[in-house]
Write a structure and sequence with these properties.
This protein has 13 helices and seven strands. The chain is mainly alpha-helical. It starts with a helix and ends with a strand. Residues 76-169 form the Cytochrome c domain.
């Protein structure tokens, strides 16, 4: 009942907050046309430009995008972001995602990236975990951090809200630091590395047009206007009835290839994410997305 009441309260707030939350705000140097373009219009524009079978395979999803349940998840995340929580009774407004403390506009479109305070290249998820530990005082075993999957998890709600502030921005992961370039290069190696009992690699499914898993058309990573949708996470998975993260998708791909489980927050996971984000460079993020 408590969860239901919270969702009902969030619905009313979402209706009022939608223009600022999802449709964007002020102009930005890395915004394509405008950040007030909703996700479904970005996708429609990409479809018009490409006629891609991958982008057009789910007309029902396109129709449902204006009412994407991920908006409710993002609204819950907005509350959590500004709420003082944890042993330190602090909000996340001092967390720097690459644009400065509390600055979220376009930040996820430039991740993974190198952070001087940790000496690491970090994804949205690993940076969020770092801030929840160092600023709010949570530990790795606390459910706020340990529970990372599902629309009701704190981690998923926060990631969805933070990512929504990059809707419409160009993917532009920085490559100024040697470690950023090293991660991208390592991710490329992993993307093409064939392994496991099926001798699959990421490229086996995403290296050319026309590949399918059952009836599902797969995106070609060599076509950035297709690839941008495939890497736009968090997204509501209709088949799962949950909002999922980039890591959850990566984990699913490795499972489908029958390879070993890629660990959350690992260098391997972040390397692949860095490479796949670089492959979509210059195309608009669709956040939050709605996927099959």
């Amino acid at each position: 009942m408590q969860g239901t009441s919270r969702k009902l309260r969030a619905y009313g707030k979402w209706l009022l907050a939608l223009p600022a939350l999802v449709l964007g705000g002020t102009a930005h140097a890395q915004c394509l046309e405008c950040t007030n373009e909703p996700p479904q219009e970005i996708l429609e524009r990409l479809i018009e430009q490409t006629g891609s079978d991958y982008l057009t395979q789910s007309p029902q999803n396109l129709q449902l995008m204006p009412d994407n349940p991920a908006y409710f998840v993002a609204e819950d995340g907005k509350e959590l972001f500004h709420e003082k929580r944890g042993p330190n009774n602090a909000s996340l407004e001092k967390c720097d995602f690459g644009k400065g403390p509390g600055e979220l506009e376009g930040a996820v479109a430039e991740m993974p990236r190198y952070f001087e305070d940790t000496g690491k290249v970090m994804s949205l998820e690993t940076r969020l975990v770092h801030c929840m530990k160092t600023i709010q005082g949570f530990s790795e075993d606390d459910p706020e951090i340990a529970e990372r999957h599902g629309s009701d998890s704190v981690m998923m709600q926060l990631q969805t809200y933070i990512a929504s502030k990059s809707n419409g921005y160009e993917w532009d992961p920085p490559m100024d630091h040697p470690m950023e370039k090293a991660m991208r290069d390592a991710g490329e190696k992993l993307f093409y590395r064939r392994a496991g009992p099926m001798d699959f690699s990421c490229n086996s499914c995403h290296g050319e047009t026309g590949k399918r898993i059952r009836a599902s058309v797969l995106p070609n990573m060599n076509k950035p206007k297709e690839w941008t949708k495939s890497i736009s996470w968090p997204a509501r998975r209709v088949g799962h009835m949950e909002v999922r993260s980039s890591y959850h998708r990566l984990r699913g791909c490795y499972w489908q290839m029958r390879q070993g489980l890629v660990q959350p927050g690992s260098d391997a996971a972040i390397a692949v994410m860095t490479y796949w984000t670089d492959a979509a460079r210059g195309e608009p993020a669709i956040l939050p997305d709605l996927k099959r």
